C-alpha cells in the first residue's frame, strides 16, 4: 500500500429497505484533499449511502475502508472516532442552546463536575479563527442567521477533529452570496488537509467546486468522472437517465385584471415581533408571480395571512376586489382561493385518511358530497376516481391511506384537489420540494396550465432556478417586506441574491 | 372463506387476541409466585360469571357502565384527546339523573325517565366540554384538566346529594322514582339488576360508528383527531370540534351515570373517593382499539373479569386485585405492540417460509 | 390567626409539599429527556407501598430510627423497577407514552394491593408504622414562625429542598444535564454527536421512578403511617401539574409544589376562620383542584415543554 491510499473507500455497498434497494453495490473512493461530489435526484440513494458512512445505518452487504484499513461503523460515535463529520441538510441544532453548547455537546470540557464553559468558548473561538468561520459563541441558535447556523454545524465536526467532512445538500437554504461564502470555506478546509464529500443535485455548484463527481441513479452508480472533463448537460443526462432541459416551455403571459392585492399588510407573531412589515404586491389573472427570498423572511406568514390562518394587524388583502383580511380559512377558500401548502404532510393531507377522503378535505360539507349531514360515500369515491385518473396519481386504490403514497403522488393528489376547486387564485408554496425530476416537471406544467387558463398564480419557492424558470414576474421578500420586483428576463442570480440578502433595494421596476 | 382469511390475517385482530392471552399468562405467573393455583382461580372466575342466571345478569350489569365509559374515552381518542375525566363525567351524570328524578317526582314515568336520562347525558357532556373549551381556547392539556375536574365533580356531587337530596340519617340520597330497570326480566335473571342502560349503551356504540364514519361532522372530528393542522388549513374550526367531541364523549359517560343511578341502585351514595368507572373506561377503550365494536367486546371481557374476580377470591382465595394486573398487562401488550410482534415473529416467519416452499 | 398557627400552617404546607416536590422532580427528569410520564401516580403508589412494607419489616427487625430510611430505599428500588416497565414500553417498543404511563397506574393499583393482601394475610392495608419524626435544626428552629414552619420538619422535607438545588445544578451545569436536555429537545442532534438517546431516556425515566418512589414513601412515612388503596389519591397528577406550572424547571416546580401543598394544608386551617364556617366543606375540599385549573388558565402554554416530548426516537426517520 502506498501512502496515497484513499481516505475513504466504499466497496460494493448494498442497503435494502422493505420494498426497495436504496443502495445497490455502490463503490466510491475519496482521495485526500479532494472535494468529491455525489450527484443524484431526490430518492436516488445519496443520503442513505452517507448515513451508512456516518454509522446511522448498517449496510446489508459491502465494506468500508478508511485510510486503507477495513472498518465497521456501527454508530455515529465510531464515525466520529474515525474522523468523519457530517453537516446535515436539516441542521441538527438544539434551538434553546447556545452556539457553544451545541458544539461541545457529547464532548464537554469539564472542571470538576461542571461543564467548563470558559474553556469551551475559548476552543470555539480558536477553531473559528483557524478556519475563518464567523460565529458568536454565546448566542442562542434561534437568534442567529441560517448561514451562521450552518457554520456551527461545520464547527461541530471540526471540534471533534473530523478530517472527512460530508456536506448534505448544504446550499438548499442559502442565498447566492452565502453559497459563495460556503464555497470559500470548503476550499479553505481542503487547503487545511480535510477531504470533502458534497451531496447535491445542483449542477452549478458541482462544476464550480468539485474535483470529481459520482453520479447515482435509483441506488446504482452510473459513473464517476473528473469535473474538468465533463459539462452540466452530460451530468444532467446521467442523473436523470434521459435528455432533460431545465428550461420550462411556456407561452408569454396573457395578463388580465388584478386578482390578489396586498396593501401595506402588517402582522406580528406571538412574541410581538413584526413578521410582515408593510407588504405590498399584486397578482393578476393569467400570470405567475414568484416570491423569492431566503427561508424565514415572512413567506409562511404571507401565505397564512392570505389564507386566513393568520390575523393581520393592519393593511388590506383583496381577492377580485373583495376584502378578505382576517376572514376564516373556510370563507376565503369559498372565494375561490386554492392553496398547495408548503408542508404536505403536516398541512396538506390527513395521512391516515384514505386518498378518497383526502380529496374532499375542503369540500366535504358541500353538495353533492354531503346530504343533510350524511356523507355520500359513493359520490366521494367517484370524485376521487376521476381525479386520480385525470392527474395520474399512482395509488393501488382510492381506499389506500395517503400515507402509503410516494411524495410525488401525495403532491399530485393535493394539486388535483386544489385545481379541481377551479380557483381564481392558486397559491403554491414550495410545490416541488423533495420531488424527483419527473414530478417536478409535472407540477410546474400544471402551474403554467393554470396561468394559461387565466388564473392568478402565486408561487413561493426557495429554489432560485424554479423562480427564474416558472415565474412571469418576481417579487423579492426580505424581513417581511417586498424589496424589489423584477422580470426574470431582466435579472440574474447575483442581483436577486443581493435583494434576498437585503443589501439591494429596488422597488417598483416591474411593478404594476 | 378467502374473505375470512383476510380478516384474520390482519394484525389488528391478532395483536389484541395475543395480548389478552399474554395478559392471562402474566396473571397466572403472578398467582404462581404468590402460591395460588391459577387454573383453579381462572375457572372460579368463569364459573362465577356463567354459574347462575343471577350472576350472568349481574355480569351484564357490570359491563354496562364500562361500555359507556369505554365509548367515551374512545370517542375522545378518535378526535385526538385523552379523556381521563370520564369518572367525573359519570358522577355528574349520576347527580343530574338524581336531581331530575327526585325533584320532579310525580311526573309520569314515560316523561320522567327520559328527562333524567337526557339530563345525565347533557350534564356529563357539559362537564367534559369544560376541558374541551379550555383546550381549544387556552391550549391547556386536557389530561390535567379532566383529572382536576374529576375531583371537583366528586365534591360537587357529594355537596348536592348532602344538601338537596339526602335521606335523613343515611349517607345517600332518597330513593329515585325514575327507573330504568327491566323488571319484566326479573324471573329470567333471578332478580339480577339488569336495566335498559345496556340497550342504550349498544345504541350509543351504533351512534358512535354512524356519526364518526358516515356524517359530515364525524368526518371533521376524525380529521381534527388525526391531523389538526391539516384540518385547520382545510378550513375546519379545530377548537369547535374539540369542544363538540369532548361534549359527546362526556355525554356517553354521563349516560353511564344515569344507568347506575336509575337502573342499578335507585339512589345516589355520597362517595368517599372516585368510583373509578372512568379509569376502567380507559382500559376498555384501549383494549377495544378505540373502535365502537371493539369497545363493546372489550367491555364484555372486562366486565366478566371484574365481576368474576370476586369468584376468584371466594373460590381460590386469590385477591381480586389480581385482575387489575391482568388488565394492565393486556393494555401494556397492546400499547407496546412491538413486544407482541416479537413474540409472534417465529410464527410469521414459519408461515412465510411455507409460502415460499 | 396568631403567629404560632401561621408557623403550623407553614409546617403542614411543607409536609404536603414534600411528596409533590419529589414526584415533580422525577417528572422533570423524565420529561426533560422527552418521555411523558403520566405514570407518576402509579410510581408514587409503588413507592408508598414499598416504604410501608420495607419500613414495617425494618421496624420489626428492631432497626428503630433507621427503619423509615430502609423504607425509603425500598421505595426507590421499587419505583425504579416500576418505571422500567414504562421505559421498556415507550422507549424500546415505542408505545404511546401516555398509554404506557396509564398502564403503570393500572399495574401499580393492582399489584400493590395484591401484594398487601399476600403479605399481610388478606388485610386491606399495611400495619401502622412509626415513620419519621420531625427533626428540629439546632438554633434555627427557635426563630419565630419560620423556626416552627421550616426548621422543625421531617428529614424528607430537608432532603427534598436539598435535591431541588442539586437537580437544578445537575440539569443546567453538568454534561449529563446538557445531554439529557438535548435528547428531549432534539434527539437526532444528540444522536449524531454520539449521545445515546435511548440510554439517556432510560436514565431519565428511571430517575423519575426513583424520585416518585421517594415521594410516595414520604406520604406513608410522614402522613398516613400505612399504605392502603387511597394512600396516593391523585398526588401524582398534581405533581404533573406542578411540573408543568413550574415550566419543567426544578426551582419552578418547587414553587408550584409548595403552592399546591399550601392549598391542601389550608383545608385544615380554614375552619379556624369565623367566615369559613358558612362555606360547605366540599367547596373547601375543591380548592386545590379549582386553583390548579385557574393557575393553568392564567399561566403557561406548552411553549416551555421540551420540544421532542412524547415522540419516540426513530433514527431511521428524518
Automatic annotation (TrEMBL), chain A:
Keywords: ATP-binding, Nucleotide-binding. Pfam families: ABC_tran. GO terms for molecular function: ATP binding. Residues 8-243, 260-504 form the ABC transporter domain. This is Ribose import ATP-binding protein RbsA. It comes from Paenibacillus auburnensis. The gene is rbsA_1.
Automatic annotation (TrEMBL), chain B:
Its main location: membrane. The lineage of its organism: Bacteria, Bacillati, Bacillota, Bacilli, Bacillales. It is found in: Cell membrane. InterPro entries: ABC_transp_permease. It comes from Paenibacillus auburnensis. It holds the Pfam family BPD_transp_2. Keywords: Cell membrane, Membrane, Transmembrane, Transmembrane helix. It comes from the Bacteria. It is a multi-pass membrane protein. CDD domains: TM_PBP1_transp_TpRbsC_like. The keyword Phosphoprotein does not apply. This is Riboflavin import permease protein RfuC. The keyword Nucleotide-binding does not apply.
UniProtKB/TrEMBL annotation, chain C:
Keywords: Cell membrane, Membrane, Transmembrane, Transmembrane helix. InterPro entries: ABC_transp_permease. It comes from the Bacteria. It is found in: Cell membrane. The chain crosses the membrane at residues 6-28, 35-57, 69-91, 103-120, 154-172, 202-224, 236-262, 283-305. It is a multi-pass membrane protein. The gene is rfuD. Pfam families: BPD_transp_2 (PF02653). This is Riboflavin import permease protein RfuD.
Amino acid at each position: 500500500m502506498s501512502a496515497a491510499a484513499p481516505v475513504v473507500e466504499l466497496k460494493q455497498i448494498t442497503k435494502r429497505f422493505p420494498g426497495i434497494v436504496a443502495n445497490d453495490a455502490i463503490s466510491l473512493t475519496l482521495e485526500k484533499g479532494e472535494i468529491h461530489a455525489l450527484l443524484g435526484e431526490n430518492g436516488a440513494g445519496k443520503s442513505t449511502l452517507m448515513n451508512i458512512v456516518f454509522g446511522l445505518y448498517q449496510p446489508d452487504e459491502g465494506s468500508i475502508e478508511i485510510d486503507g484499513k477495513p472498518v465497521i461503523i456501527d454508530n455515529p460515535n465510531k464515525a466520529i472516532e474515525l474522523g468523519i463529520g457530517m453537516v446535515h441538510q436539516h441542521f441538527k441544532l438544539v434551538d434553546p442552546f447556545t452556539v457553544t453548547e451545541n458544539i461541545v455537546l457529547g464532548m464537554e470540557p469539564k472542571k470538576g463536575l461542571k461543564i467548563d464553559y470558559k474553556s469551551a468558548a475559548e476552543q470555539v473561538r480558536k477553531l473559528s479563527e483557524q478556519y475563518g468561520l464567523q460565529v458568536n459563541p454565546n448566542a442562542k441558535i434561534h437568534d442567529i442567521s441560517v448561514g451562521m447556523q450552518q457554520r456551527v454545524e461545520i464547527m461541530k465536526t471540526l471540534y471533534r477533529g473530523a478530517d472527512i467532512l460530508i456536506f448534505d445538500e448544504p446550499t438548499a437554504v442559502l442565498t447566492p452570496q452565502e453559497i459563495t461564502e460556503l464555497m470559500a470555506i470548503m476550499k479553505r478546509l481542503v487547503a487545511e488537509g480535510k477531504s470533502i464529500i458534497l451531496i447535491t443535485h445542483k449542477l452549478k455548484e458541482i462544476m464550480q467546486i468539485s474535483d470529481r463527481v459520482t453520479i447515482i441513479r435509483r441506488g446504482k452508480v452510473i459513473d464517476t468522472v473528473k469535473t474538468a472533463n465533463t459539462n452540466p448537460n452530460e451530468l444532467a443526462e446521467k442523473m436523470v437517465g434521459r435528455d432533460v432541459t431545465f428550461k420550462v416551455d411556456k407561452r408569454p403571459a396573457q395578463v388580465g385584471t388584478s386578482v390578489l392585492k396586498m396593501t401595506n399588510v402588517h402582522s406580528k407573531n406571538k412574541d410581538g415581533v413584526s413578521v410582515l412589515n408593510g407588504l405590498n404586491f399584486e397578482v393578476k389573472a393569467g400570470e405567475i408571480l414568484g416570491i423569492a427570498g431566503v427561508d424565514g423572511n415572512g413567506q409562511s406568514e404571507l401565505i397564512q395571512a392570505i389564507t386566513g390562518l393568520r390575523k393581520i394587524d393592519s393593511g388590506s388583502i383583496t381577492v377580485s376586489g373583495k376584502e378578505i383580511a382576517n376572514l376564516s380559512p373556510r370563507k376565503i377558500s369559498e372565494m375561490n382561493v386554492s392553496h398547495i401548502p408548503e408542508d404536505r404532510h403536516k398541512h396538506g393531507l390527513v395521512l391516515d385518511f384514505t386518498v378518497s377522503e383526502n380529496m374532499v378535505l375542503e369540500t366535504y360539507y358541500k353538495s353533492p358530497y354531503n346530504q343533510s349531514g350524511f356523507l355520500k360515500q359513493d359520490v366521494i369515491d367517484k370524485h376521487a376516481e376521476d381525479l386520480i385518473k385525470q392527474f395520474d396519481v399512482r395509488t393501488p386504490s382510492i381506499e389506500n391511506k395517503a400515507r402509503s403514497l410516494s411524495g410525488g403522488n401525495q403532491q399530485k393528489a393535493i394539486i388535483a384537489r386544489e385545481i379541481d376547486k377551479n380557483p381564481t387564485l392558486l397559491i403554491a408554496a414550495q410545490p416541488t420540494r423533495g420531488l424527483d425530476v419527473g414530478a417536478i416537471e409535472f407540477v410546474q406544467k400544471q402551474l403554467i396550465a393554470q396561468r394559461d387558463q387565466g388564473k392568478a398564480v402565486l408561487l413561493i419557492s426557495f429554489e432560485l432556478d424554479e423562480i427564474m424558470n416558472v415565474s412571469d414576474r418576481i417579487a423579492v421578500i426580505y424581513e417581511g417586506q417586498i424589496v424589489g420586483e423584477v422580470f426574470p428576463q431582466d435579472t440574474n442570480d447575483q442581483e436577486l441574491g443581493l435583494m434576498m440578502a437585503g443589501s439591494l433595494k429596488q422597488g417598483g421596476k416591474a411593478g404594476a | 372463506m378467502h374473505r375470512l382469511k383476510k380478516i384474520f390475517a390482519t394484525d389488528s385482530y391478532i395483536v389484541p387476541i395475543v395480548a389478552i392471552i399474554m395478559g392471562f399468562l402474566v396473571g397466572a405467573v403472578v398467582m404462581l409466585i404468590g402460591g395460588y393455583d391459577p387454573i383453579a382461580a381462572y375457572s372460579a372466575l368463569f364459573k362465577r360469571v356463567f354459574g347462575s342466571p343471577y350472576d350472568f345478569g349481574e355480569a351484564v350489569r357490570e359491563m354496562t357502565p364500562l361500555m359507556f365509559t369505554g365509548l367515551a374515552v374512545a370517542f375522545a381518542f378518535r378526535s385526538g384527546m385523552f379523556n381521563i375525566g370520564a369518572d367525573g363525567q359519570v358522577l355528574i351524570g349520576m347527580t343530574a339523573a338524581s336531581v331530575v328524578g327526585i325533584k320532579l317526582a310525580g311526573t309520569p314515568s314515560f316523561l320522567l325517565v327520559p328527562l333524567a336520562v337526557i339530563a345525565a347525558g347533557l350534564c356529563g357532556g357539559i362537564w367534559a366540554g369544560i376541558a374541551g373549551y379550555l383546550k381549544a381556547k387556552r391550549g391547556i392539556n386536557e389530561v390535567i384538566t379532566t383529572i382536576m375536574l374529576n375531583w371537583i365533580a366528586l365534591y360537587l356531587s357529594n355537596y348536592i346529594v348532602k344538601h338537596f337530596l339526602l335521606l335523613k340519617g343515611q349517607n345517600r340520597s332518597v330513593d329515585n322514582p325514575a327507573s330504568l330497570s327491566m323488571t319484566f326480566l326479573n324471573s329470567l335473571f333471578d332478580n339480577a339488576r339488569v336495566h335498559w342502560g345496556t340497550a342504550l349503551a349498544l345504541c350509543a356504540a351504533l351512534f358512535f360508528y354512524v356519526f364518526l364514519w358516515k356524517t359530515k361532522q364525524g368526518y371533521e372530528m376524525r380529521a381534527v383527531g388525526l391531523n389538526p393542522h391539516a384540518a385547520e388549513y382545510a378550513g375546519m374550526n379545530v377548537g369547535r370540534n374539540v369542544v363538540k367531541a369532548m361534549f359527546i364523549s362526556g355525554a356517553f359517560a354521563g349516560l353511564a351515570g344515569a344507568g347506575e343511578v336509575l337502573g342499578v341502585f335507585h339512589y345516589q351514595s355520597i362517595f368517599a373517593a372516585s368510583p373509578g368507572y372512568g379509569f376502567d373506561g380507559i382500559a376498555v377503550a384501549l383494549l377495544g382499539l378505540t373502535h365502537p365494536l371493539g369497545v363493546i367486546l372489550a367491555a364484555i371481557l372486562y366486565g366478566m373479569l371484574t365481576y368474576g374476580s370476586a369468584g376468584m377470591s371466594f373460590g381460590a382465595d386469590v385477591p381480586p386485585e389480581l385482575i387489575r394486573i391482568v388488565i394492565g398487562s393486556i393494555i401494556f401488550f397492546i400499547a407496546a405492540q412491538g413486544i407482541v410482534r416479537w413474540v409472534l415473529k417465529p410464527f410469521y416467519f414459519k408461515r412465510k417460509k411455507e409460502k415460499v416452499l | 390567626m396568631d403567629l404560632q398557627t401561621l408557623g403550623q400552617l407553614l409546617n403542614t404546607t411543607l409536609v404536603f409539599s414534600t411528596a409533590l416536590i419529589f414526584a415533580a422532580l422525577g417528572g422533570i427528569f423524565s420529561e426533560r429527556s422527552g418521555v411523558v410520564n403520566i405514570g407518576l401516580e402509579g410510581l408514587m403508589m409503588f413507592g408508598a407501598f414499598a416504604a410501608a412494607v420495607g419500613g414495617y419489616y425494618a421496624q420489626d427487625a428492631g432497626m428503630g430510627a433507621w427503619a423509615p430510611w430502609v423504607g425509603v430505599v425500598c421505595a426507590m428500588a421499587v419505583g425504579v423497577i416500576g418505571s422500567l416497565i414504562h421505559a421498556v414500553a415507550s422507549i424500546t417498543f415505542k408505545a404511546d407514552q401516555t398509554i404506557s404511563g396509564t398502564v403503570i397506574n393500572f399495574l401499580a393499583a393492582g399489584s400493590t394491593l395484591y401484594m398487601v393482601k399476600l403479605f399481610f394475610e388478606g388485610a386491606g392495608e399495611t400495619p401502622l408504622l412509626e415513620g419519621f419524626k420531625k427533626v428540629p435544626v439546632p438554633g434555627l428552629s427557635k426563630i419565630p414562625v419560620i423556626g416552627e414552619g421550616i426548621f422543625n420538619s421531617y428529614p424528607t422535607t430537608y432532603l427534598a429542598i436539598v435535591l431541588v438545588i442539586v437537580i437544578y445544578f445537575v440539569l443546567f451545569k453538568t454534561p449529563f444535564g446538557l445531554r439529557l436536555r438535548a435528547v428531549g429537545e432534539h434527539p437526532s442532534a444528540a444522536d449524531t454527536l454520539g449521545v445515546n438517546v435511548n440510554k439517556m431516556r432510560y436514565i431519565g425515566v428511571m430517575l423519575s421512578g426513583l424520585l416518585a418512589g421517594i415521594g410516595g414513601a414520604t406520604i406513608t412515612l410522614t402522613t398516613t403511617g400505612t399504605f392502603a388503596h387511597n394512600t396516593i389519591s391523585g398526588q401524582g397528577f398534581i405533581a404533573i401539574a406542578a411540573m408543568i406550572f413550574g415550566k419543567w424547571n426544578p426551582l419552578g416546580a418547587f414553587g408550584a409544589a409548595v403552592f399546591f401543598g399550601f392549598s391542601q394544608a389550608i383545608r385544615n386551617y380554614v375552619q379556624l376562620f369565623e367566615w369559613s364556617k358558612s362555606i360547605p366543606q366540599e367547596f373547601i375540599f375543591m380548592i386545590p383542584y379549582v386553583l390548579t385549573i385557574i393557575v393553568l388558565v392564567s399561566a403557561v402554554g406548552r411553549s416551555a415543554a421540551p420540544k421532542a416530548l412524547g415522540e419516540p426516537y426513530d433514527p431511521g426517520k428524518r
